[in-house]
Amino acid sequence: MKAIVFYEQGDPDKLVYQDHPDPKIKTDEILVKVGACAVNRLDLNARSYRPEIQTFPHILGSDIAGEVIEIGSKVNTVTIGDRVVLSPNIPCKKCRDCMNGDENLCDYQQLLGFQTHGGYAELVKGPAENAIGISEQLSYPNAAALPIAYLTAWHMLVTRAEISSDDNILILAVGSGVGSAGLQIAKLHGAKVFAASSTSDKLDRAKKMGADFVINYKETDFKEAILELTNGRGVDVVFEHVGAATWDQSIASLAKNGRLVTCGATTGNIGEINIRKMYQKQITLLGSALGTTTELCSIIELANQGKLSPIIDSVLPLADARKSHQIMEKRENFGKICLIP
Q1: Tens digit of pLDDT for each residue in 199-221?
Q2: Dist CA 318 CA 333 (whole Å)
């Protein structure tokens, strides 16, 4: 098969399009002909420096949709020809977290394309239990856009922050995959959305997607903009995934009883907080880690019904994986970038 591999970590030039041996499945696995694989920020980090990448050559890609072309002898939940999305998380199914239904907190979990070979290839293997059926109406690029970005955003907003139609929500970096997913999910639940980004083009697109207010944080202090737009109250929820560069303003943007939910720290891991203001305003800080297969099934059902429409920035040939990473590194995309073998 053809695949994108890298033999050592570094810049996008390390990605090589070449022949690679076909995967060999186990009795409880399936082989999928990749229809599309979406690119994630995690792919860039794995290619660059993440220590979890220890076996080379390595194939990236956690967001995978395609057709089942082979099944293991013990598989009875999937048939050849099924159109599927692969849930990216492979938990141990034995630890306390897994037994409690918190598979996303499993200390022994693996992620497709991270600790295993992934979907930057014509073929990929995975556990049969990770396969989730998709409708004929859902294209492979749209389906591949769902697992990481939409699952992360869903777990943040629906499961952790428990949003409602009464909430005012600030979405940071709305042009990113997870940011644009967060905007869609917040509007699906009837919330009022304040979308923040660094370019007017991305804010125009966010407005077209239903954002009620847009803020260019390159031109203005977004905390001050939020306080002005809410008559000094602040927002109920901050959807935070930028990290150190926005942390102080994010905290200051919260209303009394506000919730900040975060899933990442692209600009740095360390942020400070004024403890007195935190308890005086009864602020809640929520961490959020990916999500569960059950949540992903709910998301895919909404997509199958047309109630969620993944935001696709561009669809590129697999051979252009380097270009996809360069686009994402420059933050030129709005929504997901997908690769097609």
Answers
A1: 999 999 999 999 999 999 889 89
A2: 17
Give residue-wise pLDDT tens across range 18-50.
Answer: 999 999 999 999 999 999 999 999 999 999 999
Q: What is the CATH number of the domain that holds 273?
A: 3.40.50.720
C-alpha span between 215 and 199 (Å, rounded): 9
Report helix, strand or coil for 125.
strand
Q: CA 52 from chain center: how many Å?
A: 19
Give the CATH number, domain containing residue 116: 3.90.180.10
User: Is the Cβ–Cβ distance between 247 and 220 less than 8 Å?
Assistant: no
**Residue 326 structure tokens:** 């360069």
The confidence score (pLDDT) of residue 265 equals 87
Relative to beta strand 168-171, strand 192-197 is: parallel
- For 227-260, the three-class secondary structure string (H helix, E strand, C coil) is HHHCCCCCEEEEEECCCCCCHHHHHHCEEEEEEE
Any idea which residue has 């990929």 for tokens? 124
Q: Are residues 126 and 59 in the same domain?
A: yes
Q: Is 186 part of a structural domain of the chain?
A: yes
Decide which of 272, 287, 302 is a domain's last residue. 287
Beta strand 235-240 pairing with 254-262? parallel
SS3 content of the chain, % helix, strand, coil (to 5): 30, 25, 45
- My answer on whether 167 and 138 are in the same domain is no
CB-based burial, 127-143: b 16+ in 10 Å, e otherwise: bbbbbbbbeeebbbbbb
**Angstrom distance (rounded) from CA 218 to CA 72:** 52
Buried residues in 6-21 as b, exposed as e (16+ CB within 10 A): beebeebeebebeebe
Query: Do 154 and 141 share a structural domain?
Result: no
Domain membership of residue 293 (yes or no) is no
89 and 61 in a single domain? The answer is yes
Domain annotation covers residue 176 = yes
Residue 299 lies in a domain: no
Residues 308 and 188: beta-carbon distance below 8 Å: yes
